[in-house]
Structure formats: C-alpha cells, structure tokens
Amino acid sequence: MADAFALNRREHKRESTGLQARVTVGDASTKCTIEDISPGGAQIIASLDMSKGRHLTLNLGAFGDVSATVAWCRKGRLGLKFVADPEIMAELVIALAHAG
Asked: Could you say which of 15, 54, 72, 81 is the most buried, measured as most Cβ atoms within 10 Å of its Cβ?
C-alpha cells in the first residue's frame, strides 16, 4: 500500500524511455540511462554516488542539456529534479517519449 501511495503522489506523469544520455557533474562526465522522465524530473541509472541537492547537467544529445539537482540516490539510480519550469520541460518530455 505504501508503494501505491508513493506512485500516486507524483506531481507529473512519468514516461519510460530507456534512452542513453550523459550526466555531467563539475568536470566529470559519465554515460547514463534515462529510466523514466517527466516535466518535473527523471530517474537515471548511472555509476554515481551523489548527495541530495547536488547540481548536475543531463545531456540529452540532440535534445540539448538540462540542469537538475539530485533528489535521491540509491544503488546506482538517481532521482533528478529539473531546474527549469515543468511547463517548459513538458514539450521536451513528449519529444523524448516519442524518440524512445
């Protein structure tokens, strides 16, 4: 029941993608997989261990770069909160969902 509650409290609908991207933190960059994405944020799979609140850039190739902060980090998965307004991000999320 707790898991259903956690899923239902999301502000934005998430789209599964499985797309490859790059995440950059400071001068370091590594490959990642975008597990799912919404206008408010994304869940990525990456070999990073980062603290909540850390700023990073998610490079989406032809779709450009997106600034985000780390919302959570567990076992190679990171939850990201996008810095840009969700209304601005909505079109990007739709484009990414159709690309995947």
From this structure: 15
DSSP characters over 35-85: EEEETTEEEEE-S----TT-EEEEE-GGG-EEEEEEEEEETTEEEEEESS-
Global confidence as pTM? 0.83
Structural domains present in the chain? 2-99 (2.40.10.220)
Q: CB–CB of 35/55 below 8 Å?
A: no
Residue 80, pLDDT score: 96
Q: Which amino acid is at 23?
A: V
Residues of the chain with pLDDT under 50: 1-8
Helix (H, G, I), strand (E, B) or coil at 31: strand
